[in-house]
């Protein structure tokens, strides 16, 4: 009923949804008619449309290899512009998932000269992440462009995501130069609002030697980092992912009295970020060390109850709960 009006309907909220649903079960003949109405004249226009982009995504998902090749040909020379556009970037991502490896190469080649621009773009970064996830690594020469910019990317709201995808999907020969560069800035990245996520990712997913190097940088700074808004997240992740010996060392550090003889425990309990690190330490500590930590926390609970603020009362209650839940208590 709507043949002849496919483009018009694709640009309408309800029309677009109707076409999307029909494409999922369309016959090859119906699919061909839809392609003929959109490709090549209106394809790029719809890719950048708030409703039309979803129709084109379905075409990539359910079209034949020949039909998808026709769609890709309309994008040639325009991949960068589409990747930087709010709706076009979604179509590019879908295309990367569903086109052939040979066609993926075209996307990579067009974006490679502008890869850092894409990485730092609110839309383009999603395209680069999708490429890293779906294109074979030996075709991703653009990763070498990240060298020398690891700190800058780690502290960028979109760059930090792209780096994490690199560490997740790329082989050692491509990630090692980036990780070696990362290790130079670990202390600064721990306290960065975006960099801390990169460090956490390496702690959770990295090789043992990379985790060990990060924990070595954290050693001696545990009490200060635990009270930092962003670094406290790294402290928690380190306590969870560290090997048993390193974990014991980090927990010992937060129990050891300072040079003035004062215990750091009370300071952590009262701190809005440090209290979470202390709670994490209570959950991961084992054996005698756990008993020792509990014995150091318990006397301070009485003092905590003297604070009249709702926050302090809540913190004291949460600490009590954690301690009483410990085995044998």
TrEMBL record:
Pfam families reported for this sequence: PUF (PF00806)
Keywords, sorted A to Z: Cytoplasm, Repeat, RNA-binding
Occurrences of domain PUM-HD (ranges): 1-323
UniProt xrefs under PROSITE patterns: PUM, PUM_HD
CDD domains assigned to the protein according to its UniProt record, in alphabetical order: Pumilio
InterPro entries named among the record's database cross-references: ARM-like, ARM-type_fold, PUM-HD, Pumilio_RNA-bd, Pumilio_RNA-bd_rpt
Subcellular localization, as worded in the UniProt entry: Cytoplasm
Main location group: cytoplasm
Each Pumilio repeat, start to end: 1-36, 37-73, 74-109, 145-180, 181-216, 217-252, 253-295
Source superkingdom: Eukaryota
Gene Ontology molecular functions: mRNA 3'-UTR binding
GO terms for cellular component: cytoplasm
Gene3D superfamilies assigned to the protein according to its UniProt record, in alphabetical order: Leucine-rich Repeat Variant
Family, similarity comment: Belongs to the PUF3 family.
Protein name, UniProt field: Pumilio homology domain family member 3
Native organism: Lentinus tigrinus ALCF2SS1-6
Lineage: Eukaryota, Fungi, Dikarya, Basidiomycota, Agaricomycotina
């Amino acid at each position: 009923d709507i043949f002849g009006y496919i483009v018009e309907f694709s640009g309408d909220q309800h029309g677009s949804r109707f076409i999307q649903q029909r494409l999922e079960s369309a016959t090859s003949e119906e699919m061909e008619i839809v392609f003929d109405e959109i490709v090549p004249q209106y394809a790029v226009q719809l890719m950048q449309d708030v409703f039309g982009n979803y129709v084109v995504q379905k075409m990539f998902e359910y079209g034949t290899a020949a039909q998808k090749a026709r769609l890709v040909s309309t994008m040639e020379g325009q991949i960068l512009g589409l990747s930087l556009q709010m709706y076009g970037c979604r179509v590019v991502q879908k295309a990367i998932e569903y086109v052939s490896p040979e066609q993926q190469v075209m996307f990579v080649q067009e974006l490679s000269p502008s890869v850092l621009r894409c990485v730092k773009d609110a839309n383009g970064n999603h395209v680069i992440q999708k490429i890293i996830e779906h294109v074979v690594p030996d075709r991703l020469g653009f990763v070498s462009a990240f060298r020398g910019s690891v700190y800058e990317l780690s502290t960028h709201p979109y760059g930090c995501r792209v780096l994490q995808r690199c560490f997740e999907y790329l082989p050692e020969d491509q990630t090692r130069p980036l990780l070696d560069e990362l290790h130079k800035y670990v202390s600064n990245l721990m306290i960065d609002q975006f960099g801390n996520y990169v460090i956490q990712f390496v702690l959770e997913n990295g090789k043992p030697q990379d985790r060990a190097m990060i924990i070595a940088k954290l050693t001696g700074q545990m009490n200060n980092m635990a009270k930092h808004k962003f670094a406290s997240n790294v402290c928690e992740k380190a306590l969870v992912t560290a090997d048993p010996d390193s974990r014991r060392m980090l927990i010992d550090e937060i129990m050891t009295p300072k040079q003035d003889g004062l215990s750091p425990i009370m300071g952590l309990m009262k701190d809005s970020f440090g209290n979470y690190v202390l709670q994490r330490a209570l959950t991961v500590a084992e054996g005698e060390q756990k008993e020792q930590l509990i014995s150091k926390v318990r006397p301070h609970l009485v003092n905590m109850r003297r604070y009249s603020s709702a926050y302090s009362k809540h913190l004291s209650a949460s600490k009590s709960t954690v301690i009483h839940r410990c085995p044998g208590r």
